[in-house]
Every structure is written in structure tokens, then in C-alpha cells.
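#lab-general

N.A. 3:47 PM
ok so I finally got the sequence cleaned up, no stray characters, all 404 residues accounted for. can someone with queue access submit it? mine expired

B.Y. 3:52 PM
send it over

N.A. 3:53 PM
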Amino acid sequence: MYVHGIRKLFSFKMYVVEHIRCDEDMAVVRLRLDRRFNICCPDCGAKMSTNKISWQDARDISLGIAQEVMLVYEAPQGKCYRCNSYVTVHPECVDPYAKATRRLMEYASLLCRFMPVQRVAQILPISSSTALRWDKQVLERTLPDPNFDGIKVLMVDEKSIWKNHSYVTVVINGETGELLHMAEGKKKKAFSSFFDKLTPEQKSSIEAVAMDRGGTYRAVVKQEIPDAEIVYDKFHIIKNYLSDVVDAVRRRAYRGAVGRIRNMIKGKRYTLFKNPEKLRDDEKMELQELLDAYEDISCVYVLKEELRALWRYKYGAWAKKHFQRWISWAREAENIPGLHRFADSLEKSKEEILNFFKHRITLGRLEGFNNLIARMVHRACGYDDMRYLFLKLRQDSLCLHPQS
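B.Y. 4:20 PM
back already:
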């Protein structure tokens, strides 16, 4: 049966549509070889003599109301005398191992980007394990390899993605947001394995690496790219100050308070942590009442705001002066637990903190990427295949920040 225009839907080289049979929910498209073409070896391109012809089938994308479409086609087997082997030829659009067309696999992969594989299996006539396998195969075939040339800024951080505090180390290009590397663990090996992929020329182009104050990643940078400058992330520093100093003072005050004063302190942790510009009017009143009642809490709160002000400076020289003043102010407060120790740790990291004013980079982009990881892992109810998770994350990083 000849169907007008159907060739455009199934225009496969060396094949013509012989007939189509449609039921309510299924269509069968029968393809036969076009005898005007010679079969050629897919490896070397040499002409082959036909040894035998078998009929095989492959699933295809839906056609109209037919949710399931099956291609039935002639698959000639020929002998290639150049390769000295027997080869079975399939239509160029068919993946013989998946027994499906590549456009169906790519459509399943597209759906997997926006929904769990269990939902994909409800839309397409495939199982969830098949959808997952196809998605991985399509990503392996279509995603470009990470671009390590011309990298100027790296961002590195760890992310907990499994139970029992199982971590992965994530490395992205600080300028483009492209995911470059992901490895299990947060020790030196997880980060140093990234530099094993780079040539000496690629390493020499890296000017700065943004990270938190963990010593593990710092040691790797000093060993692998000693000329690059380390920039400690400002948000991690402020977060450490809030948890190590401000909250410690609040808890000590709460333990020593009674009655109405105790209720005044209770529940004010996040009020102290919030930036003043984000406080509601009622929160501002409660905060002012708390600061008036406790001198130590007022002291660490003022120091918190002065520490935040460090990164508002335009010039590094003025920022350096403000940093030294902040250290001296912190050391003058003798009765506040943890403040001296925190000030000493900041002074040891002075160079890495002030490098911000040379490169103006933070881990903000990577923290946003970590949120993407959390959402993706939650949607899939976890990943057992680290390579598949890397491909999924890399797909999103390239789509969010398309390469020029």
C-alpha cells in the first residue's frame, strides 16, 4: 500500500516504505531494501556481497494516535573482504543494540531531563530501566567533552548527596559555569584527580581558585598550580563567624538567663543571622531590645556587620586597612568565647581573603549549582551510577550557561 508523503516520515537511506498497518494504539511500518543501492561495510565503506537477509524490528517514536510504532525492516548480512568479517547492515537511524530508533532514544532522554524515569515509562512504551539506560547512552554520545583550554578561574567545593555524609567534590569553570569534574569524596585524591586530566599548558592558564577555608583543597592547589591565587569565599567566612562566635555567645547568654530575659533570647538565632536590610519591622524591634540587654551579643553583632562591610570596598588597599582594624577590634573583646581564635584564623588566611579584591569571585555560582544537585538527586530518589549523575549535571550546566 502506497501512502502519499509517508517517505518524509521514514526517509531512511537504502530503504523504502513497503506498507503500513495501523491499529488503535500501534502502527507497524514495513521497510524493504532499495535494490538500487549496494550494501557497504559500515566500518570501512567497502562494497559487500550479500550473504543472507533477515527481518528485524525496532521501536520508533509515536505516530498520530499510535503510541507504539514498530519498524520491521530487512537487515542484510554481507561479507567485507577488506575487513575479513561478516557484517549485518541496519538503517542508519536504528540502534541495533537498543532495538530502537535514535530519535526515540533522544526523545526519551529529553523527557528524562524534566521528569523522573518512572514518569517517562508512563509516557513511552518502555520500562524505567530502559529509559535510564537510553538517557545515559544519548548523553554519552551527544555531550561534548569538558573544555579544559583557557580556564582562568576554578571553583571547587564538596557536596553531600547520599546518606551518612557521603560527599562528592565538584569543580566548575568560574567564568562559564561548565561542570568540569566530579569525584567521590572530599579528600586530596578527589580534587587532584582533576589536575591529572590537564596538560601543563592548561594548568598554567589558571589564575585563581575559589574555595572555602578547608585545608585539603588548598594543599592540592599549592602542589598542582602553585602560581594560581586562592580566594576564600566570603559567604563561608561569614557563615563560620555566625556559627562559631555569634551562636556561641547567644547560647551562653541563654543558659545564664532566667524568666522574661530567657524568653527574649529564645528563638532569636536567625534574627541575629539575618542581614539588617532583610529584617521585618517587628524583627528590628526585637533585635534592638536584645542588643540593648546584652553587651556581648551587641558586640559580636556589630563585628558581624563590620566583617560583612569588608567585601564592600572597591580598592584592595582600603580593604586591607579595614581587615587589620577588624582583627584589632576582635582582640580587644576579651570576654567573648571563640572570638580570639576566630580572629587568629582569619589573620592566617589574610592573603587568601584579600585576593578577592584582585579577582572579585565568590562561590555563589557553585552554591547555586549545589542546589541543582540537591534537587536532581531528590527528584531521582538518589543515583547509584556516579558517571550518569555527572552526565546529567553536565547537561544542565551546559544548558544553563551555553558555550559561545
